[in-house]
Specification:
The protein is an alpha/beta fold. 41% of the residues lie in helices and 14% in strands. Strands 1-2-3-4-5-6-7-8 form an 8-stranded parallel barrel, surrounded by 5 helices. The protein binds phosphoenolpyruvate.
Length: 268
């Protein structure tokens, strides 16, 4: 079984000074655990998504450090380059050391009106630039109450993946792609679905992907009010390959606990 994956989405938080103390805290933790190899975590499947202005700093810091953490952009534009004031191209994210890009986050869909066709264009553009998508999908509370959860998720998935889900060639590195199931009503609210509910959604996502993909499959994470006290309950579910964490990931100490506890459950 591959190690669990942890994505820390800082959203619009942390300038360079705060990013630096955060990274020092992760480094210090790694140095301290040299004496306790059994519980060792190496952050190998940890992905940090800082705001654009901190990406370059974080990337340079990581190059000088022993931390094996990957970087993600929180958003991207689908154009190559040109007259798109305020936007960032996939090649720019690559240049500062990103390996992943978050697309389709519900805050972008809801606050900035991002549509499924745009998310598809973004996916296409980042994959052409050899970046990996972290595609967020999730239903609102009303959609859930109306019994439309699966219809919404299936639409978001099939529109984002497009022809890939119709069997037109599976990208070589599809197993490095990530899907994050994030019910909108669970993001930043302290409310979560039960781990069993999440597992059954993940099972459906997996079945849906298996119909279109020739080989390999993306990892499927859960996101929405995950913290250091509830992480174990989610990670006990075989269907959950990891978590995407917003609020709790702003504290390096909490992120470390989430990774330690989550990894221990998967190793057990
Ligand atoms: C998120 O931003 O995708 C998220 C899951 O946030 P939170 O952990 O704060 O609910």
């Amino acid at each position: 079984m591959s190690p669990p994956c942890f994505v820390a989405n800082w959203k619009m938080n942390k300038g360079i000074a705060e990013a630096e103390s955060y990274l020092y805290a992760l480094e210090k933790h790694t140095a301290q655990q040299m004496d306790t190899p059994l519980s060792k975590i190496d952050f190998a499947e940890t992905i940090l998504a800082p705001p654009f202005t901190a990406l370059s700093f974080v990337s340079e810091f990581l190059k000088q450090s022993s931390l094996r953490v990957d970087l993600a952009g929180q958003n991207v534009h689908y154009g190559g380059e040109g007259a798109f004031t305020g936007e960032i191209a996939p090649s720019m994210l690559r240049e500062v050391g990103c390996r992943y890009v978050i697309i389709g986050h519900s805050e972008r869909r809801q606050i900035f009106g991002e549509t499924d066709p745009e998310i598809h264009e973004k996916l296409d553009a980042i994959v052409k630039c050899d970046l990996r998508p972290i595609l967020c999908i999730g239903e609102t509370l009303q959609e859930r109450k109306d019994g439309k959860t699966w219809a919404v998720l299936e639409r978001q998935l099939s529109e984002a993946f497009g022809e890939i889900l119709q069997g037109h060639g599976t990208p070589e590195n599809i197993s490095e792609w990530i899907i994050a199931y994030e019910p909108v009503w669970a993001i930043g609210t302290g409310q979560t679905p039960t781990p069993g509910d999440v597992a059954s959604v993940h099972r459906k996502v997996r079945e849906c992907l298996c119909q279109g993909l020739k080989k390999g499959r993306p990892r499927i994470l859960y996101g929405g009010s995950v913290n250091e006290t509830n992480i174990e309950t989610f990670m006990k579910e075989k269907q959950i390959d990891g978590v995407l964490v917003g609020g709790a990931s702003l504290s390096a100490d909490k992120l470390i606990k989430i990774i330690e506890r989550g990894t221990a459950v998967k190793r057990a």
